[in-house]
């Protein structure tokens, strides 16, 4: 048995062998058949899509002694020399490691010499975007007017980094990602030729995981065959790639879309306990919700899953509004994993926020249903203007606080963008602020759940408070998690976030003066409201400074 790996053994040898690049193959064949070969080509596109393989086929075709409608015969001496890697007139240069001006000057000197055996000498510069600026400038003149016996092929995965003067001197061909369907068919051909039995679902899972790279798909297939042999099942592929079973992913998505946060967190915990790759799980969740969104939008043809899976997804998406799918997809798309945080925290935040967003939508619907039919337009305006956009990115660790100087507190009726006053709860006329706070705390959270400050929904952050109390004109908030406390402090540094919180508290407690706010962790160190600091300190914080330690100021007049 040959020791070559699959992606080298099954490298395309003809233009018709290219997978998923039919327009490029057709154009190049016609150019060779009509003797309209250009002096410079630019092949750009994602990795593993056939750029270097196409350059080698082009080198064979232009030098083939018996071409067949633009295709190389793969039987003559020039073709066999390229296939065996011993062609003197095919020069492949890795521009990532030969990127300096000295290497390009060497090429400029060598292009003057005629080919050793073939008609054309073909230079292939792989990863051409890695050339330094002086090297690119040195290549310009040669690339524009090379000798008649020289053809340049520049291959790159990042054409934006190439100088426009280089791009304009080449014929550009954009290679596209290989579709999962085409990739699955090619993998089936390889299995048939190699005598391997593999389930179609297993090949489909490999194709979807390869993300458009045929080389990655062939490497994964060989890895699976090496690990498990033949036959190769879908369950073995999942174990190899660290994927979660599709039914568990679909169960987790259903729990998220129906606001079942405890059940969803339990499912996530069970998956994490099994040691499965959480980044792969996140990718599967995004793909599952995306496919449901496409089905809901009537674009079932864009879903690459088998027919029975599409039917199951269609049944699951019934009764779920499109707005809920879009909201879940945005939240999952904003997940950011951090090494410093617990591995499940990012997904846990997305699950909880999705459930809270659904709770907020249910509360709005309940308020709208229970509102009096004689409500005036002014009374109904705040409910109609409630924002429906999802909260922004919830990272595993909070960002550094920044923002303008908080505006002075002015109790006033909340406008459309401010939280509506909580509905009055019957209380004795002589009720203390502490009693009013306990009675109307849920109303404050419910009102702020629909209000977003600069980055976060304040109600979602306040739900993390284990205890809230009123003492001597100060509102004390005790948070269970440091990240929520720091995010609330970040919002209190902005005028809109400070006004939203203080207006809601003032309206609920009937205050005529601005309350002070102090925050602390459960059993942790207390954090004082930053608005109580001196203007000089506050200005420094707004310009990006960090407070490392706070000490109480003493007088030394004694």
Overview of the molecule:
With 558 residues, the chain is of the alpha/beta class. It has 4 domains: 6-174, Rossmann fold (3-Layer(aba) Sandwich); 180-241, Helicase, Ruva Protein, domain 3 (Orthogonal Bundle); 246-362, Zinc Finger, Delta Prime, domain 3 (Up-down Bundle), CATH 1.20.272; 433-542. 48% of the residues lie in helices and 9% in strands. The chain has 23 helices and 9 strands. The protein has helices at residues 6-9, 22-33, 51-63, 77-83, 101-110, 133-144, 164-167, 180-194, 200-210, 214-228, 234-241, 246-257, 261-273, 278-296, 307-317, 322-333, 345-370, 377-384, 433-448, 458-462, 482-492, 495-509, 535-542, and strands at residues 40-44, 90-94, 121-126, 150-156, 171-174, 465-471, 474-479, 516-521, 526-528. The strands form 2 sheets. Strands 2-3-4-1-5 form a 5-stranded parallel beta sheet, with helices on one face. Strands 6-7-8-9 form a 4-stranded mixed beta sheet. Helix 9 (200-210) runs parallel beside helix 11 and helix 16 (322-333) packs antiparallel against helix 17 (345-370). The longest helix is centred in the middle third of the chain and has 26 residues, at 345-370. The chain is elongated.
């Amino acid at each position: 048995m040959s020791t070559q790996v699959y992606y080298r053994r099954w490298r395309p040898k003809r233009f018709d062998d290219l997978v998923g690049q039919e327009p490029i193959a057709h154009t190049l064949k016609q150019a060779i058949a009509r003797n309209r070969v250009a002096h410079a080509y630019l092949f750009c596109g994602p990795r593993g899509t056939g750029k270097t393989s196409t350059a080698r086929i082009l080198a064979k075709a232009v030098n083939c002694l018996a071409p067949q409608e633009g295709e190389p015969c793969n039987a003559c001496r020039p073709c066999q020399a390229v296939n065996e890697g011993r062609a003197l007139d095919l020069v492949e240069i890795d521009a990532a490691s030969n990127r300096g001006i000295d290497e390009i000057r060497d090429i400029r000197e060598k292009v003057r010499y005629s080919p050793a055996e073939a008609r054309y000498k073909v230079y292939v510069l792989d990863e051409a975007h890695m050339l330094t600026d002086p090297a690119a400038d040195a290549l310009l003149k040669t690339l524009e007017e090379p000798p008649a016996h020289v053809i340049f092929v520049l291959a790159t995965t990042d054409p934006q980094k190439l100088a426009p003067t280089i791009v304009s001197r080449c014929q550009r061909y954009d290679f596209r990602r290989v579709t999962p369907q085409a990739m699955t068919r090619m993998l089936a051909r390889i299995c048939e030729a190699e005598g391997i039995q593999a389930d179609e679902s297993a090949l489909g899972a490999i194709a979807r995981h390869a993300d458009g790279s045929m080389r990655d798909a062939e490497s994964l297939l060989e890895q699976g065959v090496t690990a498990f042999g033949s036959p190769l099942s879908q369950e073995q592929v999942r174990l190899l790639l660290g994927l979660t079973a599709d039914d568990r992913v679909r169960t987790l998505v259903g729990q998220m879309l129906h606001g079942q946060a405890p059940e969803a967190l339990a499912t996530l915990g069970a998956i994490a306990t099994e040691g499965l790759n959480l980044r792969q799980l996140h990718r599967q969740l995004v793909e599952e919700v995306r496919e449901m969104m496409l089905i809901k939008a009537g674009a079932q043809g864009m879903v690459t899953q088998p027919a029975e899976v599409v039917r199951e997804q269609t049944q699951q998406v019934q009764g779920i509004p499109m707005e809920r799918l879009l909201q879940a997809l945005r939240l999952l798309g904003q997940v950011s994993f951090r090494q410093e945080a617990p591995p499940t925290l990012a997904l846990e935040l997305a699950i909880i926020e999705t459930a809270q967003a659904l709770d907020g939508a249910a509360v709005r619907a309940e308020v709208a249903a229970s509102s009096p039919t004689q409500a005036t337009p002014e009374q109904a305006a705040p409910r109609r203007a409630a924002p429906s956009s999802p909260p922004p990115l919830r990272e595993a660790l909070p960002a550094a606080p920044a923002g303008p100087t908080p505006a002075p507190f002015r109790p006033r009726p909340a406008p459309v963008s401010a939280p509506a006053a909580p509905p009055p709860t019957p209380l004795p006329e002589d009720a203390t602020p502490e009693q009013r706070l306990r009675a109307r705390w849920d109303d404050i959270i419910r009102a702020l759940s629909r209000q977003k400050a600069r980055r976060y929904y304040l109600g979602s952050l306040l739900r993390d408070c284990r205890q809230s109390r009123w003492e001597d004109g100060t509102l004390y908030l005790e948070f269970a998690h440091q990240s929520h406390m720091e995010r609330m402090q970040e919002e209190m540094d902005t005028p809109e976030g400070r006004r939203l919180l203080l207006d809601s508290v003032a309206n609920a407690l009937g205050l005529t003066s601005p309350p002070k706010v102090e925050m602390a962790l459960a059993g942790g160190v207390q954090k004082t409201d930053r608005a109580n600091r001196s203007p000089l300190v506050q200005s420094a914080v707004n310009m990006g400074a960090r407070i490392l330690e706070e000490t109480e100021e003493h007088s030394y007049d004694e």
